[in-house]
Design brief:
elongated; Rossmann fold; 14 strands; three-stranded antiparallel sheet; five-stranded parallel sheet; alpha/beta
Length: 464
């Protein structure tokens, strides 16, 4: 919860508060140590990196190093970088009106040096919240040195200042986040001649603008992200720049199934309930696609794939409710095939698999359902459902069959409560959750070859 800034509005009042100056990296280190000692969460919302990536990030921050996060798309690099903001002090003092956030105790730009000499202890002070001290730039080939570092401002020259006056400089993004954190996303996409402009920032901690004899010491934590493929395909980080970063940290996709599920639960915005066993199916599906030899492994399968899949399944349930009048939309197995059609374009396949994309994904989805069924209901007593089909009877389901109608067609099932318990279904007596559990069981029995299934346009018929 954000509090109000301190009351000090002049240098004298700031001193009276007992405020101490700290470089930004020391500030981050002290706050990180305090959180570690208190056992507090240091990087909120980051899933699956606790034992791998986060310890390396903590070491880099404690060493006061700038660093690069290196990993495939959708591994949470930018998300992780943005959590660093929480390690800054909530409020920090700046010279009022300064473009580069000079500290009142240590002004560095020409304007603030002049103001400090003029006003002395009455130097006006403003306060910046931690959220205002973070900036980022997506590296694109058209990014210029002026964008990052700065350039001469022709308007200021036209106002009468001479070209040699440092106040004619229009500062770029990086100096504007002096005394904060600045992130360059997809650093290899930055032209090599532009990367050169960052060398002084990382080593000498200053900037150079055109022909100015201007040494402007910066106090900034510089963090970058990159995709490993970018080192050889689209571009590269030049060797002198790589050498100046204190650490290179590799990220990864979730290593465990539970982390994959937790990530989907945390990030997906679901339009209708998706039972836990279906989220597990989607997590397994994502991992199978990621590992499939039919998929171009160099492109990676982003965590956004599983998130979009869950949202698509929920949307399919909501669509059924709108079309059939169902009052309790809950996602079921019949909603899963929509994922293949919707997300096929997010996967890059090997050239040899051209034309088989839909077939490959459908096969992997069936495998994911079968693996989840074995894990959840593999040794469960399902005789209550199998008895329903002993006389050759059938049950018709489909994406437009409401839950109440499906339950009516199946009829009373002995042991349904046990099945729902094994599936961790929390819907109680909800028809939607009961139908979801039963349809998942039917599909699993079919994949285990204990039931037959006929797929017709818009409907599925299960039989003995």
């Amino acid at each position: 919860m954000t509090t109000n800034p301190p009351k000090a509005t002049t240098l004298a009042e700031l001193r009276a508060l007992g405020h101490r100056y700290k470089p930004v990296k020391i500030e981050i280190r002290d706050n990180l140590l305090a959180r570690m000692r208190a056992g507090d969460v240091r990087f909120p919302g980051i899933v699956g990196f606790d034992d791998t990536v986060l310890p390396q990030v903590e070491r880099a921050l404690l060493a006061c190093h700038d660093f690069v996060l290196l990993g495939e798309r959708g591994q949470g690099k930018t998300r992780l970088i943005r959590t660093l903001v929480g390690l800054l002090d909530e409020w920090t003092p700046v010279v009022a009106g300064c473009d580069i956030n000079d500290h009142p105790y240590r002004p560095v730009c020409a304007r603030c040096v002049a103001l400090a000499a003029e006003y002395g202890d009455e130097l006006p002070v403003a306060w910046k919240n931690r959220d205002e001290r973070y900036g980022e730039k997506l590296a694109t080939p058209d990014t210029s040195v002026g964008d990052l570092i700065g350039d001469i401002d022709p308007i200021k020259v036209a106002e009468g200042r001479t070209l040699g006056d440092p106040q004619t400089v229009h500062y770029g993004l990086l100096p504007r986040f002096n005394r904060g954190i600045f992130s360059v996303n997809e650093l290899p996409d930055l032209a090599e001649r532009i990367q050169v402009s960052l060398l002084n920032v990382l080593e000498e901690r200053d900037i150079q603008i055109r022909g100015y004899a201007l040494r402007l010491p910066l106090d900034v934590l510089l963090v970058a992200s990159a995709n490993p493929e970018d080192y050889t395909n689209r571009g590269r980080i030049i060797t002198p720049l790589k050498d100046r970063f204190g650490a290179e940290i590799r990220t990864h996709y979730p290593l465990s199934l539970s982390d994959e599920i937790d990530l989907v639960v945390q990030e997906a915005e679901l339009a209708a309930p998706v039972p836990g066993h279906l989220l597990e199916v989607l997590a397994r599906f994502t991992r199978l696609v990621r590992e499939s030899p039919a998929v171009d492994q160099r492109s990676g399968i982003s965590a956004r794939f599983a998130i979009a899949a869950a949202e698509t399944v929920a949307a399919s349930a909501l669509r059924r409710a709108a079309l059939t009048g169902e009052s309790d939309p809950v996602a079921r197995v019949c909603d899963l095939p929509a994922v293949v059609d919707t997300l096929q374009g997010k996967v890059e396949f090997e050239v040899s698999e051209e034309g088989r994309e839909h077939e490959v994904l459908s096969h992997l989805l069936r495998r994911a359902i079968a693996e989840t069924f074995r894990a959840r209901l593999g040794n469960a007593d399902l005789s209550g459902i199998l008895d329903r089909f002993e006389e050759g009877e059938t049950v018709e389901s489909g994406e437009l069959v409401p839950a109440s109608e499906l339950l009516r067609r199946i009829g009373p099932v002995k042991g349904l409560a046990k099945i729902m318990e094994r599936l961790d279904v929390t819907g109680g007596e909800s028809p939607g959750h009961a139908a979801a559990a039963l349809e998942f069981t039917l599909e699993g029995l079919y994949l285990m070859r204990r039931l037959s299934k006929d797929e017709l346009p818009g409907k599925t018929v299960y039989g003995g």
